[in-house]
Design a protein that fits this description.
Mean pLDDT: 88
Strand order of the largest sheet: 1-7-6-2-3
Structural class: alpha/beta
CATH topology: Rossmann fold
Helix content: 25-40%
Order of helices and strands: HEHHEHEEEHEHE
Radius of gyration: 16 Å
CATH architecture: 3-Layer(aba) Sandwich
Shape: globular
Low-confidence stretches: none
Distance between the termini: 40 Å
Strand content: 25-35%
Largest sheet: 5 strands, parallel
Number of helices: 6
């Protein structure tokens, strides 16, 4: 029997793709391109450009998986609250799945309850109460899952989420991230 630690380590050997490198706001001297990436990610988090990002993600899914994209469940790591999750992922997930033929997991994950989380935005870091996640475990059993998250920093959220899906009998093929945080010295 595999331990949680072994399952956690296995997540790092899977497909992981980030569309952009993201420099957090603590880096003040950045290029115009870096500012464009920040604005894209911040806009996505606020639900302003979800269809633009959906086209980007769908194109990469089709190039990566071809016709097999239709046999993949597209599953976003939930945002910190039910309201933010809806703003960020409802229309986005629907559009990615419409464009690729993938199965949408959005309605099979509910955000409820509360926990503490630290979030970084253009105005700095803040600690707040956030929701916990409930899964339709039967839905995920036997499915091939592609996970999506807006920003990859250290990868712990992705690894925990992917391991959780696999405890339901899912097979996580990997993850796409809109941005990958660069931590410069």
């Amino acid at each position: 029997m595999k331990t949680y630690s072994q399952a956690f380590e296995r997540q790092w050997s899977k497909l992981m793709y980030a569309f952009f490198d993201y420099l957090p706001t603590r880096y003040r001297q950045v290029s115009p391109h870096d500012w464009d990436v920040r604005r894209l990610i911040w806009g996505f988090k606020e639900g302003r450009n979800s269809l633009q990002v959906a086209r980007l993600v769908a194109d990469k899914m089709v190039r990566t998986f071809g016709k097999e994209a239709e046999n993949i469940v597209f599953c976003c790591i939930p945002a910190s609250s039910g309201a933010k999750n809806k703003i960020r992922y409802r229309d986005f997930s629907a559009e990615v799945c419409r464009l690729t033929g993938a199965v949408n997991a959005y309605d099979h994950i509910k955000v409820s309850g509360e926990r503490l989380a630290i979030h970084e935005s253009k105005s700095g870091k803040r600690v707040q109460n956030v929701q916990t996640v409930d899964f339709d475990t039967d839905f995920f059993r036997g499915k091939r899952i592609l996970v999506f998250d807006d920003v990859l920093t250290l990868g712990f959220s992705y690894a925990r989420f992917a391991c959780r899906l696999e405890t339901f009998g899912a097979s996580v093929v990997g993850a796409f991230f809109l941005g990958r945080t660069l931590l410069l010295n």
